[in-house]
Write a structure and sequence with these properties.
alpha/beta; Aspartate Aminotransferase, domain 1; 7-stranded mixed β-sheet; 14% strand
Amino acid sequence: MSEAPLRFPVSRPVLAGRERDYVCDAIDSEWISSTGPYIGRFESAVSDYLGIEEGLSVCNGTVAIHLACLALGLRPGQDVIVPSLTFVASANAVAYCGANPVFADCDPETWNITRESLEAVWTPSTAGVIAVHLYGLPAPMKEITELCEERGAWCIEDCAQGFGAKIDGQCVGSFGDASSFSFFGNKIISTGEGGMVFVRDSQKRTFARMLRGQGMDLNRRYWHPIIGYNYRMTNVAAAIGLGQVEKADLHLGERRRIAAHYAEALKPLADEGLIALPVEPEGYHNVHWLFSITVAGGAGVRDRVGARLRAVHGVENRPFFVPMHKLPMYDRGQSLPNSESASRCGLNLPTYTGLAAADLDVICEAIHEEVRRESRVKVAA
């Protein structure tokens, strides 16, 4: 069977604003490295949009988590609780500090960690928690931060997948002691590669700023009182980002539109128990970085549905993340059944600005066809 041409990618960057104008201006000005006016303009634009004080732009989302850990004083040998069901960067940043990622299970419906799942793996050495807003749905930050405060631990929000998501009108990234964002090419707001870190405490924020720039004193050039990193964003990347954040309402609105279309068109499959749709608890605003479903029947069914969507219909899709407690460097024999189940069944669907209603109809018809095909095969067996 020959494979159909790719018609609908899972994600693609959409440059619908003044990105080109700003990049050309940055190039014409010859400020193309990690200094230049677009750095500050982009930082201010993101901070203002999210309502969080003084973001620090960085070269990618992973180093944003690393800087947050360092700014909050994470030391070797300490434990940090991380959701198992997310991208590996969240745990790797903890390991960079010589600390130990401890993995928490997810809620079976939201796919996010909960207060209860954190309590189940809390240790005497727990220094903090990294809460991830998986696929765009906020984690229960009020409950998580309350637990951290009760136990004298800090909390970092990993908002790589949740730019613009809200709880009771408050943007994620503003609940924890620090937060990190990714602006990779497939994110809601992109700079190609890039990220941003927010640190609530002003002294710790200054420390993060020094660490970002090779540990150089902020008021004395070439004086380096600490060992730092070159984690800075370029002026060109920031120029792209400024054009993107100026269109943030467009990109976020498009994801809500796309999610509503998917939810309505795929509801019959959900009503029959053949798939499960993403949820949105009351007061939570899901930005649907990727519209994600779970397919009944386990990994075999999910994989066959996904393979035929790509090969027959040209619809790219991706499985959920492999739970980190199952990765070779972090596998300690732990069992987290909800994360493992979601990972076996989860499927990410095309989600990006400009995906037309007619395109979504084609995608949903293909999903109906392939999910029902697998259901018929199961009944026949």
